[in-house]
Amino acid sequence: MWNKRAEASELKTRLILAGVTVIAMIVLGASKESAVRGAGMSPAPRERQVVTRVDPVYPAALRHSKSDEVVRLEVLVAPDGNVKAAKVLGGSPVLAEASLKAIQQWKYSPAETEQMLLVKIDFDAYR
């Protein structure tokens, strides 16, 4: 019984100290990320920026349809910014193929870890 109470008390003390640390760092002007890191928590990942973008080629076979469409992709980006994997979540199969070919050539800003991104590619038949 004593052990459980001591553990609960220690946990409560640690949580209070973490909260006070975060508040103090924010009040003293530290960034939220360093405040969160100082409290032993991981900050939310920043959104990766596209550094090099290759537009997909609108297939000639579909140009006659003159319809605008969207392809949605799930993209795994490596820490160095290269696209490691991509999978189609929705859209025309022909446009999806063109999207996959293009996105494999994209380059993102570097980060500490891999990141899964949702990408939407708009196809404009009039471009």
CATH topology of the largest domain: TolA/TonB C-terminal domain
* End-to-end gap: 73 Å
Strand order of the largest sheet: 3-2-5
CATH class of the largest domain: Alpha Beta
Main structural class: alpha+beta
Strand content: 15-25%
Global outline: elongated
| Mean pLDDT value | 76
CATH architecture of the largest domain: 2-Layer Sandwich
Tally of DSSP helical segments = 4
Number of domains: 2
State the fourth-level CATH superfamily of the largest domain. Answer: TonB
The major β-sheet equals: 3 strands, antiparallel
Quantity of strands, as a count: 5
List the helices and strands and how they pair.
Blueprint lengths: L1 H26 L4 H7 L11 E3 L7 H4 L5 E9 L5 E8 L2 H11 L3 E2 L6 E9 L4
Antiparallel strand pairs: 1-4, 2-3, 2-5
Walk me through what this model shows.
About 8% of the residues have low confidence. The chain has a 3-stranded antiparallel β-sheet. It has a two-stranded antiparallel ribbon with strand order 1-4. Helix 1 packs antiparallel against helix 2. The chain is elongated. A hairpin with a 5-residue loop joins strand 2 and strand 3. By secondary structure, the chain is of the alpha+beta class. The chain has 4 helices and 5 strands; from the N terminus they run H-H-E-H-E-E-H-E-E. It has 2 domains: 37 residues; 74 residues, TolA/TonB C-terminal domain (2-Layer Sandwich).
